[in-house]
Write a structure and sequence with these properties.
Blueprint (H helix, E strand, L loop, with lengths): L4 H21 L6 H38 L4 H33 L7 H4 L13 H6 L6 H7 L2 H17 L5 H22 L2 H15 L2 H6 L1 H27 L3 H7 L1 H10 L6 H11 L4 H14 L2 H17 L9 H14 L6 H12 L7 H6 L1 H27 L14
Helix pairs in contact: 1-9, 1-13, 2-7, 2-8, 2-9, 2-15, 3-15, 3-16, 3-17, 3-20, 9-13, 11-12, 11-16, 11-20, 13-20, 14-15, 14-20, 15-20, 16-17, 16-18, 16-20, 17-18
Amino acid sequence: MKNSLSAKVFLGLVLGFIIGTMIQYVIPPSWAAAGFATEASTGLGGMFVSMIKLIVVPLVFISITCGICELKDLSSFGRLGTKTFSFYIINTIAAIALTMAIVMWLQPGVGVNLGAMAENVTLAATETPNMWQMVINIIPSNPFQAFAEGNMLQIIFMAIMTGIAIQALDKRGGPAIRSFKMANEIMMKLITLVMSLAPYGVFFLMISLGATLDSSKMLAVAGYIALVVSMFIFMFLVVYPMLVFITTGIKPVTFIKHIREQIMFSLSSASSNATIPVTMRTVTEKLGVSRSVAGFGVPLGATMNMSGAAIYTTIATIFVANAYGMPMTVEQMLPLGFTVLLLSIGAGGVPGGGIVSIGICLHTFGLPVEALAIVAAVDRICDMFCTTANVVGDTAINTIVAKSEGEIDIPMQGQAVTA
């Protein structure tokens, strides 16, 4: 435990938050050192996240291409792709249904005068995404632009086509396959190098968070925050470990032990895309998922498996409706669920991506868009746990898919696949 990376990350998380809180509430605001420490921590933490994001795009392209090249035949890719995509959709639908049942029972926001808190604030409304347009935009007209913008769906499409083309070359594709395998090894080594800096990056990120959180707004909507956070914790510490145990036999304690680093990093970064390297490391090195399954499933999950975002958007929308005295009816649950499903698939895996989805939902169902000001004020704390639910869901689905394909080396209880 002494040399455990997850223990170091946890220590950095706790110490950073304590120091950040002290900067905000103990050190006098007039002290220039406090402002400098906050700015420095924000900058250094941002540098770490940027370093992670630096390897995300090449990692996604190389890992998916390499994963397809390692498949025995293309028919297995069709089966793997269909199964992974279906499981992600089912996971999101189930998360929405469970959340709706709990929220309609608890009715968060009843008696909260949200209007008084958000007065004189107006935010621009947005439109519900067009599913057909999303499908059309998967195919990039300019591959360089797709890489420059980090458009994950387009990058995944190009990687799939590249992998299929290499596979179609048969023996002549050998040099290309070896090149992509070497590139994949390089990316894995880069992940290891960058993750060695994770305790320091998380430390600075949490100082910035603790020094800037608006506690007064958090206390005003404490019930809402408690429900959101509790729902996410229930998902990634109870639902997903039990689901993995039922389908693969990996004990919940073992699963939770192996995802500790992933939990700590996702809490601090609040970005599904930035957590891709950590998720890749978790599923392959600790849970024994094969590179061919993880190389395709992990990047896809970070792009479209936004079950956490779906939960967050559902709770926030119903909370706002109740807080403004405009409770949603049972008949509105089906359209709400379908809208949230579309939004979660198209949600960006970046910090604050859930706020965009919530704003669209409020506008679509005729709820006061200015309420987004209060939701956004406490978004940072909710978004941390939302991201964790997203990425742990990715890990669970990939583990289940790998088990169904016979592409997993299940770890012993308390042990990782590799040291």
